[in-house]
């Protein structure tokens, strides 16, 4: 359910703030560089505030002189703990809760900063540069850092919107509400905020739309590509560098040749900022919710009565077939491609649309339908259940995925074993003729897997090709 739906007010769509899905976190992240470019008076000097914080951490670590037992170094480690901010409803799904940046990760970050300082880099112009220098700093970590450092401003921003729309607020305790520079520690606080009933009436904090991205604008892969790192190093420094640089190698190069990082930052600073609307054209990570509601309303599926696990398995398989028919017969394939139908959607987008379409029907039929259930060795894509005995696990993959066959041969049966579930479905989405050819013998592979693991697995191939759909649309 959307924030606006829960609080029963109409959004026209051009609001500057992000209207979060309260029932499931959206896989988008706060991009610090977007904050840097903000024209909003509330955030105009916020980037300087964030950089001041990290400069203090650099100074403390530098003062320690490489001694990790030094009091200054320990103080820096405590500064660099940023708990995940669940109130913003962003990041990985609530069934895959991130850890934020806890004590172990803070130690790792402090150690990386210490290494950078040892190479002569005593300050940085954008703290996202840490994502280039240090392994393990992805969009989720940078988003956690930003949302903690600007939490007070985001709270003020949320209160402004709630007052404008007459949204009720309750006094809620907020962790890491602000950083006290006198005592060099994080402090909690109590603030009036709206609540999220899907997260135990925890607070909701709203974010400007244009602060969001799928990846931070400053990132190691973009650094390598923008500077054409491998070619530059071969030509300028006579290095033999593989074209496909891994993150560890990029980090090493960035520290050794900081002048290349500065050149890259100068290029990124001159780029035009992306709008939220442009971002939504590239992904279904947020728009899947409204799309799915419309599709489910216009394409009803009657689940019927379930008497035993065999009947339940049959119904769930028919349910998955319903998604296949929507894509192949009812022009649903168009949603699985970009606007010009030249680029296929990601596996994340495909799974989100699958979940969204089936979710409404499952709820209506008292079927528990969960995405990415953590089974100890990682998350299975989907789990259907009705009571304890009636359970089916489903993996949804793209045929072009390099680990596609591993999903059928190992992942799904292993998840089924851990869940004590004997019934599974392997759904694959094909975008090209090559994909279709690749999965030609998929049921034979499934049969071998059934014998090896003593389970039952049905397969579904969803044909999402663009060039063979005209005749089907006229049926």
Which terms summarize this structure?
single chain; about 475 residues; alpha+beta; Trna Endonuclease, Chain: A, domain 1; 2 domains; five-stranded mixed β-sheet; two-stranded antiparallel ribbon
Write a structural description.
With 475 residues, the protein is an alpha+beta fold. The protein folds into 2 domains: 3-275, no CATH class; 283-473, 3-Layer(aba) Sandwich (Trna Endonuclease, Chain: A, domain 1), CATH 3.40.1350. 44% of the residues lie in helices and 14% in strands. It has 20 helices and 11 strands. Strands 7-8-9-10-11 form a 5-stranded mixed sheet, sandwiched between helices. A two-stranded antiparallel ribbon has the order 1-6. A hairpin with a 4-residue loop joins strand 2 (170-180) and strand 3 (185-193). Residues 94-99 have low confidence and may be disordered.
Q: Can you give me a brief rundown of this structure?
A:
The chain is α+β, with helices and mostly antiparallel strands and about 475 residues long. Helices cover about 45% and strands about 15% of the residues. It has 20 helices and eleven strands.
């Amino acid at each position: 359910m959307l924030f606006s739906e829960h609080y029963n007010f109409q959004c026209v769509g051009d609001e500057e703030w992000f209207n979060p899905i309260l029932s499931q976190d959206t896989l988008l992240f706060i991009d610090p560089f977007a904050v840097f470019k903000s024209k909003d008076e509330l955030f105009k000097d916020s980037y300087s505030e964030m950089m001041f914080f990290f400069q203090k951490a650099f100074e403390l670590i530098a003062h320690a002189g490489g001694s990790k037992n030094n009091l200054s170094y320990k103080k820096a480690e405590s500064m660099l703990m940023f708990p995940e901010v669940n109130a913003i409803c962003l990041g990985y799904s609530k069934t895959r809760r991130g850890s934020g940046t806890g004590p172990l990760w803070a130690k790792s970050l402090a150690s990386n900063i210490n290494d950078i300082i040892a190479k002569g880099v005593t300050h940085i112009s954008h703290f996202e540069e840490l994502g280039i220098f240090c392994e393990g700093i992805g969009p989720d970590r940078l988003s956690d850092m930003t949302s903690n450092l600007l939490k007070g401003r985001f709270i003020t921003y949320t209160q402004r919107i709630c007052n404008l729309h007459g949204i009720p607020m309750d006094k809620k305790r907020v962790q890491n509400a602000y950083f006290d520079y006198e005592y060099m520690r994080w402090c909690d606080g109590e603030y009036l905020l709206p609540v999220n009933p899907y997260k135990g009436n925890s607070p909701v904090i709203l974010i400007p739309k244009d602060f969001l991205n799928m990846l931070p604008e400053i990132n190691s892969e973009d650094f390598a590509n923008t500077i054409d790192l491998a070619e530059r190093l071969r030509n300028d420094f006579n290095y033999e560098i593989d074209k496909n640089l891994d993150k560890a190698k990029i980090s090493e190069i960035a520290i050794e040749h900081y002048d290349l990082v500065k050149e890259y930052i100068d290029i990124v600073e001159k780029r035009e900022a992306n709008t939220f609307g442009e971002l939504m054209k590239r992904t279904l990570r947020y728009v899947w919710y409204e799309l799915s509601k419309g599709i489910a309303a216009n394409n009803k599926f009657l689940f019927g009565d379930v008497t035993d696990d065999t009947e339940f398995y049959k119904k769930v398989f028919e349910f998955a077939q319903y998604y296949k028919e929507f894509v192949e017969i009812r022009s649903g394939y168009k949603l699985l491609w970009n606007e010009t139908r030249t680029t296929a959607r990601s596996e994340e987008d495909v799974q989100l649309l699958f979940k969204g379409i089936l979710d409404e029907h499952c709820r209506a039929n008292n079927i528990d339908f969960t995405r990415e259930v953590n089974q100890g060795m990682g998350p299975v894509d989907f789990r259907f259940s009705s009571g304890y005995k009636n359970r089916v696990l489903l993996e949804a993959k793209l045929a072009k995925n390099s680990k596609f066959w591993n999903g059928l041969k190992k992942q799904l049966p292993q998840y089924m074993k851990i869940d004590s579930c004997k019934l599974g479905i392997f759904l694959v989405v094909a975008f090209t003729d090559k994909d279709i050819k690749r999965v030609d013998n998929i049921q034979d592979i499934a049969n071998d897997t059934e014998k090896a693991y003593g389970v039952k697995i049905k397969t579904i191939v969803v044909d999402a090709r663009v060039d063979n759909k005209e005749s089907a649309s006229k049926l």
